[in-house]
């Protein structure tokens, strides 16, 4: 993977966002044209369509990744090469994810209580959570496409590149910050930053993109499937009006803290710190000294 400075990592994040915005304009225009040709009297679609997000995220991530791989003459297979025995870590990682999901849910409640999101923003993202209207495209986009593209970009490319230039703590924090800013949504940024820290730490311990993708997909899946769980908790999956904020009970938050702490403790024991070895730079050896008599002899033979 290429070596990245903080400025270059920020530039790649901005490039990804700009690709997304440009592609959204193209895809949105194409969708509107097709809808107009089919039925000129049909009402305009409200919100961001999951299919559009699927296409845009995939193309934007592909363009950024392809550009860096071509620039550094690296193969795509480098992203798919396993770097740790991640299967045995799955149960402990699941415990971490349970704690992370509970705590981010409560953090989101607090964010909405302090700064309620506008109605137009909720309307824009409503199709992404509509399993009735989009039974396949919504879950596939959130659980698979978003998880794969964003983890390949922010853990597979940006974090790995930063680790060649920065110490691990600074690299993980910076990659998490860029991941949060990429969402362009103040109500998502605190949770995205925390997720970036968790996945950055996991990647640092395992070098496994598979775990990060699985965790990312599970986190996104919970936003769709929480209402179908066999239990109901206020502030987590209890139905309520969109303009009302409910907070989770203290015991539920305590379960989240305990799951996250205990899971991190076990994960720390099972996946000890791996030394990050920067790419080896080829250094030409200095020329051997040549005595004056040898030099004169060589000059006479030329």
What's the gist of this structure?
With 302 residues, this protein is mainly α.
What can you tell me about this protein's structure?
With 302 residues, the chain is mainly alpha-helical. It has one domain (6-281). The protein contains eleven helices and no strands. It has helices at residues 6-38, 50-71, 77-80, 90-114, 119-125, 137-163, 168-182, 189-206, 209-225, 250-270, 292-301. The longest helix is centred in the first third of the chain and has 33 residues, at 6-38. It is globular and about 50 Å long. The model is unreliable at 279-283 (pLDDT under 50).
Provide the fold topology.
Elements: H1 6-38, H2 50-71, H3 77-80, H4 90-114, H5 119-125, H6 137-163, H7 168-182, H8 189-206, H9 209-225, H10 250-270, H11 292-301
Helix pairs in contact: 1-2, 1-6, 1-7, 2-6, 4-8, 4-9, 4-10, 6-7, 6-9, 7-8, 8-9
């Amino acid at each position: 993977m290429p070596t990245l400075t903080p400025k270059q990592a920020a530039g790649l994040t901005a490039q990804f966002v700009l690709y997304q915005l440009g592609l959204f304009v193209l895809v949105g225009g194409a969708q509107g044209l097709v809808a107009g040709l089919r039925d000129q009297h049909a009402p305009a679609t409200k919100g961001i369509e999951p299919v559009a997000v699927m296409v845009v995220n995939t193309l934007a991530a592909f363009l950024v990744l392809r550009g860096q791989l071509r620039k550094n003459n690296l193969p795509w297979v480098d992203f798919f090469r396993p770097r740790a025995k991640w299967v045995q870590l799955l149960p402990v990682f699941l415990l971490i994810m349970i704690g992370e999901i509970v705590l981010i849910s409560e953090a989101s409640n607090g964010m909405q209580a302090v700064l309620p999101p506008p109605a137009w923003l909720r309307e824009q993202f409503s199709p992404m959570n509509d399993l009735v209207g989009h039974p396949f495209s919504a879950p596939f986009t959130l659980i698979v496409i978003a998880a794969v593209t964003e983890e390949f970009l922010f853990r597979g490319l940006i974090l790995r590149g930063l680790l060649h230039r920065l110490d691990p703590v600074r690299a993980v924090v910076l990659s998490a910050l860029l991941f949060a800013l990429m969402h362009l949504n103040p109500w998502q940024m605190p949770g995205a930053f925390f997720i970036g820290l968790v996945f950055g730490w996991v990647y640092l311990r395992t070098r496994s993109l598979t775990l990060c993708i699985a965790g990312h997909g599970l986190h996104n899946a919970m936003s769709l499937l929480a209402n179908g769980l066999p239990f109901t908790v206020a502030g987590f999956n209890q139905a309520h009006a969109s303009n009302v904020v409910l907070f989770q009970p203290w015991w539920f938050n305590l379960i989240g803290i305990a799951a996250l702490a205990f899971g991190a403790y076990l994960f720390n024991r099972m996946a000890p710190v791996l030394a990050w070895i920067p790419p080896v730079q080829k250094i030409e050896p200095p020329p051997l000294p040549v005595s004056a008599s040898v030099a004169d002899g060589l000059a006479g033979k030329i």
